[in-house]
Amino acid sequence: MNENSKIVTALLAGLAAGAVVGLLFAPDKGSETRDKINESLSDLGDAIKERAEEQFDQLSELKDKLVSLVKSRASEMEAIVDDEIVEHA
Q1: What is the DSSP string of 17-84?
Q2: Which pLDDT band holds residue 1 (cuts at 50, 70, 90)?
């Protein structure tokens, strides 16, 4: 996990914790407070899911780049080996 991901994750966790604490000390009825907490947790879950999807997409792109690079290098090596075989045959 890179530094930006850690910062975003910590920020989301801090926001969620702050929202829950704020709601717990708010002068609302219990049912209203529970509804607000559920809504906050749902929003946090959505944010985490979105961030996880972004990370998955980045990993997928990295994998594709690495596979392409390895195939390219393998083709280059194959050409070099073929040239060497022809020279020494």
Answers
A1: HHHHHHHHTSSS-HHHHHHHHHHHHHHHHHHHHHHHHHHHHHHHHHHHHHHHHHHHHHHHHHHHHHHH
A2: low
